[in-house]
Amino acid sequence: MGIRRWLVLVFVGELSLALGGAFALRQFYRDTEVAGPLQGLVYVATLQFLPYLARGVLLGVLGVGLFLLGSFRVMRAIMDPLRSPSTDQPLVEVIYQKRFLARGPRIVAIGGGTGLSTLLRGLKEQTSNLTAVVTVADDGGSSGKLTSQLGLPAVGDIRNCIVALADAEPLMAELLQYRFPESKLGGSDGETGGLGGHAVGNLLIAALTAVEHGDFEEGVRKMNRVLAVRGQVLPVSPTPLVLHAETADGSIVDGQSLIARTMGLERLWITPDDVEASDDALRAIAEAEIVILGPGSLYTSILPSLLMPAIRDALLASPALRIYVCNVATQRGETTGYDLADHVEALERHVAPGLVDVVLANSAIVAGDRARDRAGKDEASPEHGGGGEPVRLRWPPSTTVTPRLVLEDVVDPDRPHHHDPARLAAAIARVVERDGAAHRRGGIARSA
Description:
By secondary structure, this protein is an alpha/beta fold. It has helices at residues 4-30, 32-35, 39-45, 52-79, 91-102, 113-123, 141-150, 156-165, 170-177, 182-185, 200-211, 216-226, 256-259, 279-287, 298-306, 309-317, 340-350, 369-380, 421-440, and strands spanning 107-111, 130-134, 232-235, 242-247, 252-254, 265-271, 290-293, 321-325, 329-331, 358-362, 387-390, 404-408, 411-412, 415-419.
């Protein structure tokens, strides 16, 4: 935990103090004019009636016992009030965990949706040097209402990521995710006002932004601090983004919610054209050792952030190892029929060749009646966005430079359209262990 060196220093100081006292006592004892009748008392107190070895052993045992007892009582008296009521772990385990995580790699994860929050739940057990750069292009649900009414960027994905990284009590996380029912608290006569449909966490971010005089980024920073987030969650921009797409037949689709349900997407862009990226996000990318793209909706969660010129340029200039985590399953609409190579080709077509160094994909296909039942529930879930089929592992893609492909079992057996947080984090750790050093030495071997 980094405290042994200071304990040694304290011990050396106490030893020096004890030796100084011993020398003074010895001189006092020998000076008969000063000591006088106290010599007998000093004789007994210093155990001079025992052999030197016996005196050393007895005093050594007594000193060690008193030192340990005193240290334990002092630490307990100081630290007990600081122990979090939300954990049953001993304080020493909590301190060790925080120091261990503080030495973890500097990771930036870019994306949005449930995929990014799943990734963060796993990574926060490996490092606290973690930054989530979250898209602000969502135009549906509570986020869309707050954007239209207050002019705020989309906050829903930011809320999910903050909850995923928060060290708050489970009840607090449940509270932030609570969504007021539309039927009871919605606006009258079909209006969009009222609390109906809003998540408590979204309203809290909106309130903190108002407290900070409309500074959205500062409002999100305050939210990070209020919930003791392990790492930090940043909006990719303080300005709301609007997504636009062109399909294969030349049709134009506007808005994230519509694009997510559209097949045959050929081109994606954002407005406003001159949107500014978050300075904190750019700084985090420049300082990162690892940058992870995804998992998440390819066109509506990952690409919106990468389409911003400043983010794209920072990512291409970064010395970090860049990893793309492909979705476990396609999404009905935007990636219907896509295989692994299609995902990578679309990513590089919209951003830049050579964008990623490593592609991490799922190698395990969950089978059985239980998995099919759960997949059916996922497909019907609005949160999932309409599930598709497992992503077929066609490789390599038709790109100028072929990233290294890593196949791992990262699927959640009970939710076959989702990653398992622990498995995904462990797979990324293995990729970093294998490729991180090679990347720092001059790049991973890739085929043209």
